Amino acid sequence: MKFNFKWLLLLVGLAVVFIVDFPILTVILNSFRTTDSILSSRNILPDQPTLTNYFYINTRTHFWTFLLNSGIVALASTALGTGLAALAGFAMSRFRLRVLGIYNQALLIVQMFPLILAIIPLFVMFRRLDLVNNFVPVILVYTVTQLPFATWMLRSYFDSVPKELDEAARVDGCSRLRGFVQIVLPLSTPGIAAVAIFSFLFSYNEFFISSVFLRDENRMTMPVGIQSFMQQYSTDWGGLMASAALAMVPTLILFLFIQKYMISGATAGAVKG
Amino acid sequence: MPRAAIQSSQRVAPTLLVRGLPIERLPYLLLLPSLTLICLIELYPFLSGVSYSLHKGTLLSTGNFVALDNYVRLFNSPDFYNSLSFSFFFALFNVVFSYLIGLGLALFLNLDFPGRGLCRVLLLIPWIVPAVVSIVSWKWLIADRGGLVNIILATFGLGPIYFLSQSGWAMVAVIVIKIWRSFPFMMLSLLAQLQVIDRTLYEAGKLDGASHWQLFWHITLPHLKNISIVQAILMVIWSINDFETPFLLTQGGPSNATENLILLSYRYTFGRNDIGRGSAVAILTLVLLVVLATLMLHQQRKIA
């Protein structure tokens, strides 16, 4: 009796999953059918699966450029953001000073800062510096946007490394910074990897900032590129679906790596906030 | 020497300043790079934004000082109240429904059944895929011609509903899609909290003859109170700051029905080349967020 009830719960669970993920499922299924078939068929499954859309975006669009640009921007901001957050997170984990409390408040404000407020003056400034269509402003804004979350998460990972370890290293004549680099960092590798992947996902997925600063087709990131498809070929559902399906492949792969860290991530802001 | 180092290092952090020892520079140096970047990317723009909002400028020149004229004109413009109210309802519906759906699914995933880990992972997908991907899929689902929702309606002899060209339906669509993108995060954080509630509390409650409902009301809910308020604050902030959902789906239309404060600021700035009013809207949005967050945090302290 009890046995049956558990399997019934699984069945309910899968039904909920199917409903919730249905829109994403349609992107994948529709990417294998022509636009005509998407618009006319009553079938959810493709009647005659085809790779036409994929060939089309491969040869006729800047898809791979968008992917490369997204990769550059996301990697650079992840490296910079995780690095800066690790330094600040270490300070917050190992020192007790008033300035750290103030810094924590600053992170809270960064967390709620409307990006449009940053974008207007930065756009004016970077335009004067002739840095529109340049990755630098986008990378810098992404880095700052990631800081609160990355710092809080890393701080809690560093907190879980016993203080006695880096103190022992100091006894052996190590500076505090070396103790951090050689002892605390290696022991927090899984946490750092999780934070880095979170940051990468955020930057890879982000649309708003990129769309303001990267307007030339050769500089667009993936989300901006897909949005420009959406505007130019709003009726080419096949091509749109295929590019959307390909765009989420990196997201889904990275997500599989960090899904078990998701729970600690979801509460990081809450606990420290 | 080593012994002395141990003793001092154990006391170093808290007592450093009090004892008049030289202030350790390391923590300041560790914060310096991130603080510099925060100043460049948020503090400097904030100060310029305040200044822009007091001038009548364009993207090319700062323009003349007009004092509070931009704000006065905003308070007299229907566009502003329209955006304010859409932002408000957008945030309200999003918080309420992502909380209810998130709580329901968190309670469900907290039950013991095979494959619940898999279900949890798959339910997070709407939250982690890029916004633009979700919007492409939803745009097809609710398209006027050939969209799945309208095909289904047609088989029942209903519709078609022109979701993106009727104000009311466009608002519904933007809000529903936002809820769909938000609830997994709510679910995840509530589930995390549910999993740390002490099991023995429930056993003790059962021994005392409490019903399922009483267990939920007197044990589960009080344990979720804190995280619920914090997540609600985050959700309000993120909803009001959301640009992607309305912009990608409707660009604020039809006739500004789905234009929130961020899109209004964006339209003034980049559409009308009026950075004075664009910045004024952005500053007011920040003020609104700070006020809301402070009120909600205050409420949390009162309850907790």
Kindly summarize this structure in a few lines.
Chain A is mainly α and 273 residues long. Chain A has 14 helices and no strands.
Give a verbal description of the structure.
The complex is a heterodimer of chains A (about 270) and B (about 300). The radius of gyration of chain A is 23 Å and the shape is globular. In chain A, helix 4 runs parallel beside helix 7 and helix 7 packs across helix 14. Chain A is built from 14 helices and no strands. Chain A has a single domain, classed as MetI-like fold. In chain A, about 80% of the residues lie in helices and about 0% in strands. Chain A is mainly α and about 270 residues long. Chain B has about 300 residues and is mostly helical. Chain B has a single domain, classed as MetI-like fold. Chain B is built from 14 helices and two strands. The N terminus of chain B is likely disordered. Chains A and B meet through helix 1, helix 2, helix 4, helix 5 and helix 6 of A and helix 1, helix 2, helix 4, helix 5 and helix 6 of B.
Question: What are the main properties of this structure?
Answer:
heterodimer, A: 273 residues, mainly alpha, MetI-like fold, 80% helix, globular, B: 304 residues, two-stranded antiparallel ribbon, 2 strands, 74% helix, disordered N terminus
